[in-house]
Amino acid sequence: MSNQIRAELFKLQRNKTFWVLVLISTGISALLHYLVIIEWWQMQNTAFDRAGLSEFNAISTFTVPLFFNLIISPLAGFYISNEFSNSSVIKNQIISGSKRSHIFLSKYLVFTIGSIVLTIIIPIMTAIIEVILLGHGDILTPSTMLYLGRAYSLFTLQYLGYTAILILIAIITEDSGKTIIFSIVLTIVMFVIEKLPNIPIVSMIYNNSIFNQFSEVFTFSMTSGEILKSILIALVTLIIITLCGVIVFNKKEIK
Amino acid sequence: MSEYILRTSQLSKKYKNTLALDDVNISVKKGEIYGFIGQNGAGKSTLLRIVTGLSFSSKGSIELFGENNPSMLSDAQKRTGAIIESPALFPNMTAHDNLEVHRLQKGIPGRESINKTLELVGLSETGNKKVKNFSLGMKQRLGLAIALLSDPELLILDEPTNGLDPMGIAWLRELIKKLNREKGLTILISSHILSELHQLASRYGIIHQGKLLEEISAKELDEKCRQHLRIKVDQQAKGATILESTLSTTDFEVMPDGTMKLYAYLDDVRKVSKALTDNDLVIEHLSQNGDSLESYFRELVGGVEDE
């Protein structure tokens, strides 16, 4: 499988969409952080406010599925789906005799790495750099760093489940446009469910999903039980969706 | 080890209500060039897709390099190279990068194999040119380079001359012969252009409407396509006796429709005609024929369509 991962990393490096998205993510992130830090854009009552990191408020934009999906769904479409449709290069991978599950997992892994770079690493790095450059470095204390470390570790765990959902959509649709549209629809549905008046069964499912956890993990103070629950939700989602992906890919007829 | 590189047993593929393959048994021997002949939609690509793992059979089994356990087939597939339908390439990458992806996937050590393969297919001068700017022929060559990069033991080519100009076709033919001759590479090549295969294959599999009609060696085919006199007389049994007694030859065969194929006396037709008429036979048909692969194929397929 290491061969597959190396090949996928090479393809990601050569993928134009990825580099365009790196530029977009860096640009948007730098701009939003700048606007927040100079207080031109005032965001209030965010989790970062409560943690004493109000200069980091712009990051909260990147933690909303409706927003970060807009950045990573094109990657899923143009990096994953395109291999099935436009060029059919997926054929070469299958013909080469690699196990389908290895092919799927290597794609998932590298797509996730690319997505983490785009919507987690870039926003955090630009935030830290701008905070320091604009003279607010003193907010980066051990306790705030610990908070960021805990919150982002849990967030990344939830994120693994989300990228598994995206790659599953990409493989089922085999079309970049459909992948983007279906993923946007999914995030809109989740957004609507979050805002819906209390329907017990729906609330119960939503509250125990990664979509709720995307915001919950940024709570300033979390009990051990809450952390454990968050980890369990992420792992169960990851395992179930990845297994579904492997099964779908194993049964897929490659056109 | 078995002399067969590839064998299928009662391989069938059903798409909803269409039977694309119907109990197909083909066998490809080590070191041969196997020509897989059939019209468009006959089931050639379907079979090759199943063999290469792109598709799954509804029934039957495959034995590749002696391995017939479905879960272990992927290991045997590592020893094959293939182009199925059209070459699968990254349009925004160069030829070198396309091969690099494949090299990494297969875990082939060292980059020198890339330059060697590019040279083999005549693409060593493409430099930084992106594949999207390649001609169809260049893309086909690059597809072949990908298939050859890992030095496979079995090369599967599905309609490889699609998009190639006459020069390209001649080049490909020579390359296939060279690979077979020099490296002992076993090649399974499908085409609906029969003349292409006639100059290449050492054995043929003829498929029609999902059914394998015949497997025949080039030698046997040549034998069947020999120049002959096609004779039809009013009394076939007597005609055969006269050929044996008067013309002293047994080099003929009687076809199911009663015509006789006489492989002797090709340059003395008058003698044949005289021998038959002198013995009170009415000659209904007498002509000199020689089947081409095309006419043989037509005859075979026609027989099926008439049924």
TrEMBL record, chain A:
Q: Organism classification, top ranks?
A: Bacteria, Bacillati, Bacillota, Bacilli, Bacillales
Which PANTHER family does the annotation name? INTEGRAL MEMBRANE PROTEIN-RELATED, MEMBRANE PROTEIN
Annotated keywords: Membrane, Transmembrane, Transmembrane helix
What is the official name of this protein in its record?
Answer: ABC transporter permease
Segments passing through the bilayer: 18-38, 58-81, 108-134, 154-173, 180-207, 227-249
Q: Where does this protein come from, organism-wise? A: Oceanobacillus bengalensis
A Pfam entry, by short name: ABC2_membrane_4
TrEMBL record, chain B:
The answer to whether the entry has keyword Cell wall biogenesis/degradation is: no
GO MF annotation: an example:
ATP binding
- Alphabetized UniProt keyword annotations: ATP-binding, Nucleotide-binding, Transport
Which residue numbers delimit the ABC transporter domain? 6-234
Origin superkingdom:
Bacteria
Q: Name one Pfam family in it.
A: ABC_tran
Q: Which family does it belong to?
A: Belongs to the ABC transporter superfamily.
Supply the name of the protein: ABC transporter ATP-binding protein
Say which species the protein is native to: Oceanobacillus bengalensis
Which lineage? Bacteria, Bacillati, Bacillota, Bacilli, Bacillales
